[in-house]
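ARCHIVE RECORD
Type: protein–small molecule complex
Small molecule: pyridoxal-5'-phosphate
Source of inputs: curated submission
Record status: active
Notes field left blank by submitter.
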Amino acid sequence: MAIEFSPNMKRIEESGTLAVFARVKEMQRTGQEVLSLVVGELDCETPDFIKQAGIRAIREGFTRYTVNSGIPELREAIARKLRDDNDLEYTPDEILVSAGSKQAFYNIMYALCGEGDEVIIFTPNYTSHPDQVRLVGATPVLVPSRVENNYQIEAEALRRAITEHTRMIILNSPNNPSSQLYTKESFEIVAKTAMEHDLWILSDELYEKIVFPPHVHYSIAQLFPEVKERSLVANGLSKTYAMTGWRLGYGAGPREVIKAAALVQSHTTNNASSISQKAALAALTEDDGSFFRDLIPDLEKKRDTAYRIISSIDGLNCPNAQGAFYLFPSIKKYIGRRSGDRVIGGSLDLAMYLLEEKQVAIVPGIAFNTEGAIRISFATDLETVERGCLKIKEGLEQLA
Ligand SMILES: Cc1ncc(COP(=O)(O)O)c(C=O)c1O
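STRUCTURE (tokenized, with ligand):
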């Protein structure tokens, strides 16, 4: 039977990087070693006390539907976390527990934006954000930020993007892929613009705990309380506690919006996994801080190794990572160069070249709507980070 998809499918795109991932798989299948610097999750297991809470939940039969928006004790724990870590006061009915921050983000997007609305996204951006906007029928408006300005928000660029249809601004700090945190000035530009044009702000803060000193994570409404009534936070435990597979995230914001987002969830998936909710409760209430005490210095060592090698490559503009676990150097100087018959026309060509000639996998910047850059993840073992970055250096230096 000929399959004709609904027009809905025309709204979303496959990632342009699938070709790279398909090639990685093929090379691995044929026994070739690939140094993978593409990972988007921590290189360690979920802490044992969290796993034990999940196991206990299963043993005790906590395996049925829960309240759609999440068990009350978990929403209370999230409210405490938002108060203690972010100086943000939310009541449990202003919090929605979802299957990952991605689902919370989507439910909120669905509740607030639709046909005819424009949503501002700063590039480089997390890959799913524009597609989530398109899924609800709205239009993503990409506003570039520049490596020369450490990927901060520029008032003039934002002003030019605002139209009478603008409905929302998306923030992501620490940012995937740039690993930069917004400065107070960047947040102020967004806060002022949102107030002036009556816009919503949806802030993806998934990497908030992965921040390297002396940098500090801020949530926009913490710095500018006047925007709290128009701000929503999407966050979760995936990156914080190495819990990507548990699918546990949450959204927080004005009660009426959270209620509407919960209604969306009630008709799609209903509650997040009951087992994961119990595990998340343990993460938020029993954590003695030891996981981060070890994690951040370990990641810092990997970051410093990657940065030392990558920043020594001629002509690469590479801000060091302030949070998350990526380097996102600009490789503009290498566009147009050659290796034999192979011409490096853009970041995808460079990714393929590094993969096929140097057996190292990275993600091309085009996946994040930023041509002329590459994303290098250092969330893997130190030896792979070092060997992979040396291969990138060798590959770039051999281009003529
Ligand atoms: C910036 C950002 N937001 C959201 C997500 C999705 O995370 P979750 O596992 O909480 O759905 C990711 C995952 O890589 C991410 O990098």
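CURATOR ANNOTATION: The domain at 7-45+291-397 is CATH 3.90.1150.10 (Aspartate Aminotransferase, domain 1).
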